[in-house]
Structure formats: structure tokens, C-alpha cells
Automatic annotation (TrEMBL):
GO BP, sorted A to Z: intracellular protein transport
GO cellular component assignments: cytoplasm; membrane
Entries under Pfam families matching the protein: RabGAP-TBC (PF00566)
Subunit relationships: Interacts with RAB1A and RAB10; in a GTP-dependent manner.
Protein function: Acts as a GTPase-activating protein for RAB35. Together with RAB35 may be involved in regulation of insulin-induced glucose transporter SLC2A4/GLUT4 translocation to the plasma membrane in adipocytes.
UniProt keyword annotations, A-Z: Cytoplasm, GTPase activation, Membrane
Protein name per its UniProtKB record: TBC1 domain family member 13
KW Cytoplasm (keyword) present: yes
Protein species of origin: Mytilus edulis (Blue mussel)
Length: 388
């Protein structure tokens, strides 16, 4: 206990400086950020280059960024939602064939929103947190007097309208729903409340609108999830209250570093992209443990079978959320963090090397795809540090 208190004091000393010593902060965070006093949230915001290093600038900077995010909500959700709920867009008609019309854009957004909604509803299924109501919903959207159509209701309308009429042999007409009603698939909160997953949905929708060249790619929900949870579960009220806006900008900064992993057209011949990263990972494993690499090659188990998900989603689907956050502490703290990600992946395989060397293809494939059940996280991080 005394050692832990001393460690908390180290974080306090670093974070109270007028100019944050990022090098010292990285060294501390690499061994794990404490949840107490909101230290992890502040550290992640610094390590993801969201907060400036001068602590005296934090107040004005955060106020400016949070107002900017409110503006995004107003322009991309509130105003279009209000137009949709009243059934009118002043300058065109729903049947306007122009794809750049307001209605054309609205319908195109709905296609993207259906996938975002589906992914966000099932975010971290083992954790009830994302299904719970947030204490800080977007009042401009869920207020009783608001006529804004929420993203959830837009999705529900899309789903409920997908029904067909079939005629049986006797000439009777029957309605056949092609998809289940949303309310039958997921718990939906009453009007006036927002679940945490709906907040994540809104973040991803706005991100996609601001990045039309890339849009939303399945798996981005697994990247924003731990960031939002970190801020929304923080012990400091101000952090929880502004978790949505702060998560958005931290997610933007992180995606600027890893967006190439979500672009399918980048292959192994590129100096970026998931194909190149998987090849680099394979080379690292060969250097770290040649016999293990050789056995995996003999079994014809390609990195695409397992490392694609590990690297693209930063291991967010391989471990329980608390462990993912511990991994991300080290990942964000390392100035070559995506190099260290590959080190962690190698360490995971080395931890179960004996079973891999002795096993056949079915056993090893099952082992690798569920490796989190076989390894100790602290040992993995320690081994990854050696490899680095």
C-alpha cells in the first residue's frame, strides 16, 4: 500500500507542474496509469496529444474544443434531424434524384448509420456499462420539447420499414418482416434517456461525416469504446460530464495515427497499412523466436488468421476491458507505440510457444484465437518490453 501511495504521489508531482515533462510522464504511464484522482484520463489526453503540455492552458483549450464539438452536433445531427422530423427539407424533395441533395445525403447517412448502430449496440457485451443511461445526455436532442429525430430513432425507422407483402396460395395477403424489430433485439431506454452506446454512436457518426473519404469502418467502435469508458467512468465529475467531446478529439488523434490500418487498398507493398504491419510483425517474431516462427510457418497459419484483428483493433477484442486499458497505458506511453504493439503480439505467442510447437493445426488455431485465456498479462508486457 505504501508503494502504491508513493506511485500516486509521483503522478501528482508530474501532473501539477506548469509544463508537463512528457518524457517523465511516459515513463510513469508505461507501467500503468492509476484510476484514482482521474490520473488515467488526464494522462491519456496528454499522451494522445489532446491536452497541451502547459497546464495553465488546459481550461481555455478544453472550453474551446467542447464548444466546437457542440457545433458539430448542431450542424450534423440537430439541424438535419429537425428537418427530418418535420418532414421537410426546404430546397428539395425526398424523390430528388440528385445524390448531393439534402435528402440524398440524409438517406446515404442512414446506410452508414445502420452499421454504426449495429456495432455500438453490441459494444463490450460482457460489460453492462454501455447499456446503462448516461447522466449527461445531449439535451438538445433528448429534451422533451425537442423535435429532433435521434440517431437511434432514425435507425429504428429504417429497420421497421423493411417489410414486404407476400400472397399465399389461397390469395391471402400477409406482412412479412425481413428483419427483427430493434426493440426485440436490444434493450431500448425510454424517451428522455440516452445509453452510453448511443453517445459512442454519435461520436462515430460525426467522425464519419467529417472524414467522408474514409467514413466508418467496422471495428472503429472497438477503438473508441475504451477511450470513452475511461473518461465516462472517471471519478472526477467534470471529466464524466465532458466525456463525449473529449473522447471524440482523442479518438480523432488516435485515428490519425492508425487510419491506414483501416484502408483495405494498402497492401504489403506499401510502407503503411495493415499488410505491411503484419509482415513486420512476422519478421519480428522470426527474430525473437526463430523456432516458434518456423513452426507457425509449417502449420501454414498466416498472420491474417489472427494478427489482423490484434493489430487493427489494438488488442481491444482479445482481453477484458480493464486489461485492454492496462495494455493501452503502455501502448500510448511508448513513443514508438505501434512498434510496441507488435512486441506485445509476439510476446503473447512466445508465452504459449510450447503448446504451439507441439500442437497440430486445429489445436494451434484455437489456441492462438483464444490466447488471452492462456497468458498472464503482466508477463506478456514484461516480455514485450524485453523484445522492444
Amino acid at each position: 500500500m505504501a508503494a502504491y501511495q508513493a506511485r500516486l504521489k509521483q503522478f501528482e508531482d508530474v501532473l501539477k507542474e506548469e509544463v508537463i515533462d512528457i518524457k517523465s510522464l511516459r515513463k510513469l504511464c508505461f507501467n500503468g496509469c492509476p484510476f484514482e484522482c482521474g490520473y488515467r484520463s488526464v494522462c491519456w489526453k496528454l499522451l494522445l496529444n489532446y491536452l497541451p503540455c502547459k497546464s495553465c492552458e488546459w481550461g481555455d483549450f478544453l472550453s474551446k474544443q467542447r464548444k466546437l464539438y457542440t457545433h458539430f452536433i448542431d450542424e450534423m445531427i440537430v439541424k438535419p434531424g429537425l428537418d427530418a422530423s418535420t418532414g421537410t427539407h426546404q430546397d428539395d424533395h425526398p424523390l430528388n434524384p440528385n445524390p448531393n441533395s439534402n435528402w440524398g445525403t440524409f438517406f446515404k447517412d442512414n446506410e452508414m448509420l445502420l452499421q454504426i448502430d449495429k456495432d455500438c449496440r453490441r459494444l463490450c457485451p460482457d460489460l453492462f456499462f454501455f447499456q446503462k443511461a448516461t447522466d449527461y445526455p445531449c439535451k438538445d436532442i433528448i429534451h422533451a420539447d425537442s423535435r429532433v429525430e435521434t440517431l437511434r430513432k432514425r435507425v429504428e425507422q429504417c429497420v421497421l420499414q423493411s417489410e414486404t407483402i407476400k400472397v399465399d396460395r389461397k390469395g391471402n395477403y400477409n406482412k412479412v418482416f425481413s428483419r427483427k424489430r430493434v426493440s426485440e433485439e436490444y434493450m431500448v431506454l425510454p424517451d428522455g434517456h440516452e445509453a452510453h452506446w448511443e453517445v459512442v454512436e454519435r461520436i462515430l457518426f460525426i467522425y464519419s461525416k467529417l472524414n467522408p473519404g474514409q467514413g466508418y469502418v467496422q471495428g472503429m467502435n472497438e477503438i473508441i469504446g475504451p477511450i470513452y469508458y475511461c473518461f465516462a467512468a472517471d471519478p472526477i465529475k467534470e471529466c464524466r460530464e465532458n466525456a463525449e467531446a473529449d473522447s471524440f478529439f482523442c479518438f480523432m488523434n488516435l485515428m490519425s495515427e492508425i487510419r491506414d490500418l483501416f484502408i483495405k487498398t494498402l497492401d504489403a507493398d506499401s510502407q503503411c497499412g495493415i499488410g505491411y504491419m503484419m509482415q513486420d510483425f512476422s519478421n519480428m517474431l522470426q527474430t525473437s523466436d526463430q523456432r516458434l516462427h518456423q513452426r507457425i510457418e509449417e502449420l501454414n497459419i498466416k498472420p491474417q488468421f489472427y494478427a489482423f484483428r490484434w493489430l487493427t483493433l489494438l488488442l481491444s477484442q482479445e482481453f477484458p476491458l480493464p486489461d485492454v486499458m492496462r495494455i493501452w497505458d503502455s501502448l500510448f506511453a511508448d513513443d514508438r507505440r505501434f512498434h510496441f504493439l507488435k512486441c506485445i503480439c509476439c510476446a503473447m505467442l512466445i508465452e504459449v510457444r510450447d503448446e504451439i510447437i507441439q500442437g497440430d493445426f486445429p489445436h494451434v488455431m484455437k489456441l492462438i484465437q483464444n490466447v488471452q485465456d492462456k497468458v498472464d498479462l503482466q508477463r506478456v508486457i514484461a516480455k514485450a518490453t524485453e523484445i522492444r
